[in-house]
Amino acid sequence: xxxxxxxxxxxxxxxxxxxxxxxxxxxxxxxxxxxxxxxxxxxxxxxxxxxxxxxxxxxxxxxxxxxxxxxxxxxxxxxxxxxxxxxxxxxxxxxxxxxxxxxxxxxxxxx
Length: 111
Prior knowledge:
By secondary structure, the protein is an alpha+beta fold. The chain is built from 3 helices and 5 strands, in the order ααβββαββ.
């Protein structure tokens, strides 16, 4: 039996930047297999990509800068980081989040 998505719960999780809860509780995705965050360097800056959920071969990553003072990655940087994550998970959704968890940009591409 499948459950219906509760829009109020999903909205609450989105607004609170609780993407793990959104994918696992609201969308019914699985917890990811245990793995260390991927440390990625680009343009002299360090980023961490943490797997937060998975469904079949699809993986969801939260990507944050390792330095909270670093500005949000622009579109070109997001693409470069995506290319570094693809070897670890071909089908993926990347959620770029600022250090204060007040802004997010979602990127997904199928190769």
